[in-house]
Amino acid sequence: MTTTPITPMYDHLVLISLDTLRSDALPFHPAPQWPAKYGLTRTVRAEALRHLADEGFFFSNCKSAAPYTSASHASLFTGKWPVRHGVFEFFNRRLRGGTLFGAARRHGFRTLFKVDFPIILGRHLGFDRDADLYIVEDDDAFLAALDPARRSVSFVHFGGIHLPYGFHNLRSGGDAYRAKVRDLEAGLPRHAPAAADRLVETYRDAEDLDLLVRYKNAVQHLYREEAYARIFDLYLEGIDLFLDRVFAPFLERLIDRLAGQRTLLVVFGDHGEEYDEESCGHFNTVADGVLTVPLILHGPDIARGHAARLVRTIDLAPTLAELLGFGGPFPAGMDGVSLAPTLLDRAPYAERPAFAQAYVADTAAYVSYQDRMLRRDRKSGSLPHTLTREVVIDGGCRLERWYDSVGAPYTKRLERYARDGAHSPCDAPEVAESLGEMLNAYNRMRRNGQAMSGVPAEVGARLAAMGYHV
Predict the structure, then answer these.
(1) Is the pTM of this model over 0.90?
(2) Domain 12-162+230-351: which topology?
C-alpha cells in the first residue's frame, strides 16, 4: 500500500475486456512467441491500443487465473482465485463473494455492465447482480447511458476477437461474415464431419447460429489436419478486423463522451488463443500463450511505463479498489495484491505465484445442458466437470500438471520460466515436488476457503541457489 491514504482519484472507471486477446498478439509486445512457433509474418496494427499503452502503463506479462471467460472475469472482478469465488469450471457454479462493482455501489458509484456474451457473463452465473444497468450487445446504448455528471464504474465486454474471429455475429459481421464462411468452406472436403460443438455465448437467430456452426466446422477440420498456423492466422486477422472496425471507433466515442472528466481506462484480455497438438483454442489448455494477457491502464496520474515482471489478473481488483479509495473488508478478502504504488510512483513490485486450471465437460452433455437452459430460460441442475490440467508459475519455474483418466495428477513438464516468455526444460525433482505441493494447497482452498501463501522460505532459498529469480 502507499504511505499516504488515497481518496477517490477518478470520477469514472471503465474496464474494457477484449475477450480472447493474448498479450503477445499486440505489435508493441517486447517478446512475441507466436511468429517463431507458427512461421507467420502478419502484423496486427492495434494503433488505438498502442496509444493507450504509450501514454499509460502496460503490463505485458499478466497471467490469467483461468483459460475461459466466466472464471477469468470472476477473478478480475473479485481479486480471488477461481477456487475461492466458485466460478472455476467452464460453466456451472454461480459467482459468490464481493465484487468490485458491489463495492462501487456502496461508495456511491453508478455501475454499468455491457456484455457481448450474456449467457456466460450474465444472470445464469450471477454476473449481473451488482449492475445498476445491464446491457447486452449494444455499444450505442452503453455510451448513451454513461452520464459524465454521475460517478461511475463500468464494464464493457467485447466478443469480436473470439471465434468466429473478427465477426462476433451476423449483425456485426454482415456480408463479410457470410463471405468468410463460404471461403473457409471452399477448402473443406465434400463429406467433412460436422462439428459437435454447437455451444453459444450469446443469443442467436437461425442464420446466425448456422454461420457460427459452419465456421466452427471449418476450424475443427483445419485442426484435425494439424493446420495450426492457418487457424492462428485467422485469429490474428480477426484481431485486426475487430480493432479497426469496432474497437477504435468505440474508444474514440468513449473518450469524447467523458471529455473533461477524471477517467481511468483499463483494457485487458481474459485469455488468449493457442493451436497445437496440446491446445485447441483456449478452453482445454493452460498454455502460456492462452494465460498471458495484456493489462493496460491509462488515466490521470498513471505513470507511463512498461513492466515485464509477472503480475496476475487477481491483482487488478485490489489495485482499482485502492485507486478508487475503497477501504474495508472488500480489499482485505482478496488474494491479489495492489499494484497502485507501481502505477502511481513506479515502485517496484514482487512477483507472486500464479495459478490456473482447466476444467472440461463432455461436449455433448454441455450442448444438451445449454439447450435445456435456453429453452427454459433458467439454469437447473449441474454440469459435471473434470479437472484436466493445472499450472503454477513461481520463482522462475513453471510446473504444468495433467490429470489421467482416473483423476490422478502427474507432472507434464517442469520448466525454467523467463520473463520474455521463453521456456527451457528443468530437471529438478525437488522443485517439481515443492511446486506440486503448492498446487495441492491451491486445490485444498475449495474446501477450507483459506488464502494461498507464497513459496516457503526454504524452498525459495533452494530455487535461488539453482539460479532461479525468486
Answers:
(1) yes
(2) Alkaline Phosphatase, subunit A (3.40.720)
